[in-house]
């Protein structure tokens, strides 16, 4: 890597970032992906709902994406991006190593982090028998005794209690510290969800999981779904001055364009429900918009040069 200017720097090497970078590289743009190497789905053994890649290990998908990007001349730098700042004719992306990448455009695909409920034993089993997304993992635990644990993300968790019921007739919902409204309790019960009130003290393992309540009760489950609080890794965007919407997340248009000209965002960093396949699609959409932004600059520069000739 040298000091030569890039057409685009993509920060984040997950499905959204690699998809975006590959499209830009195929458009004959000089593009580099800066990846800190901390994928959100690393604890999962398999990925699902990605056409033609169902059941693949998440790391294999990323490795395949890197190979494809390299085949079109795209670069990957394994580093942590610490800031993005405006610079002459574009932006400067600064890395933890002290290096600096200059670029005409930026696409941020840094994802989000899951803040898990503070229940002893939960984190150790995250991605194994403690799950988050029924669409990602529900089929694999279908028709087994399942649980849903209440956490700080109240709307998500209550909805999840109903959703998980699609995969099993034996679903126990542990509201934990969530105070259910009478209507919520009635609807869940009518839908066949068993509500187990009381504070959850811990999870213990064995053949499946045991949910232990503070009053000493124990409920055996094969797997449980927990609702984390989704926190976007958007420090680079907010530090640059990108506008934040009423929901607290960086605002983008349909193409992923932020309020800062020349900066796009895609994937979970701006869209918490995005699955791998939709994040990859968002990366592609953002890359097309970013390429059109670069094209407008190219044409304007050529026209200016011609007028001065």
From TrEMBL:
Its EC number is 1.8.1.9. Signal peptide: none annotated. The keyword Flavoprotein applies. Keywords: Flavoprotein, Oxidoreductase. Pfam families: Pyr_redox_2. The keyword DNA damage does not apply. This is Probable thioredoxin-disulfide reductase. It catalyses: [thioredoxin]-dithiol + NADP(+) = [thioredoxin]-disulfide + NADPH + H(+). It comes from Saccharopolyspora erythraea (strain ATCC 11635 / DSM 40517 / JCM 4748 / NBRC 13426 / NCIMB 8594 / NRRL 2338). GO terms for molecular function: thioredoxin-disulfide reductase (NADPH) activity.
């Amino acid at each position: 890597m040298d000091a030569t200017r890039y057409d685009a720097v993509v920060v984040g090497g997950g499905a959204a970032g690699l998809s975006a970078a590959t499209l830009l590289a195929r458009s004959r743009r000089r593009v580099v992906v800066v990846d800190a190497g901390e994928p959100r789905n690393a604890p999962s053994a398999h990925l699902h709902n990605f056409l033609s890649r169902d059941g693949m290990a998440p790391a294999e998908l990323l490795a395949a994406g890197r190979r494809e990007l390299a085949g079109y001349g795209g670069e990957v730098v394994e580093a942590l991006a610490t800031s993005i700042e405006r610079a002459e004719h574009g932006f400067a992306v600064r890395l933890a190593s002290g290096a600096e990448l200059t670029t005409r455009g930026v696409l941020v695909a840094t994802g989000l982090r899951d803040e898990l409920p503070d229940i002893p034993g939960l984190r150790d089993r995250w991605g194994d028998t403690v799950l988050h997304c029924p669409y990602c993992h529900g089929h694999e635990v279908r028709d087994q005794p399942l649980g849903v644990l209440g956490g700080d993300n109240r709307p998500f968790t209550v909805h999840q209690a109903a959703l998980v019921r699609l995969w099993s007739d034996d679903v126990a919902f542990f509201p934990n510290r969530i105070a259910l409204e009478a209507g919520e309790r009635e609807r869940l019960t009518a839908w066949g969800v068993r509500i187990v009130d009381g504070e959850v003290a811990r999870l213990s393992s064995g053949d499946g999981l045991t949910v232990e309540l503070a009053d000493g009760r124990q409920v055996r489950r094969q797997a449980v779904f927990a609702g984390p609080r989704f926190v976007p890794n958007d420090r680079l965007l907010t530090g640059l001055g990108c506008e934040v919407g009423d929901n607290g997340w960086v605002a983008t248009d349909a193409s992923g364009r932020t309020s800062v000209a020349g900066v796009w965002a895609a994937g979970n960093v701006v869209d918490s429900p995005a699955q791998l396949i939709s994040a990859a699609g968002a990366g592609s959409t953002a890359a097309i918009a970013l390429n059109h932004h670069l094209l407008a600059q190219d044409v304007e520069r050529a026209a200016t040069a011609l007028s001065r000739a």
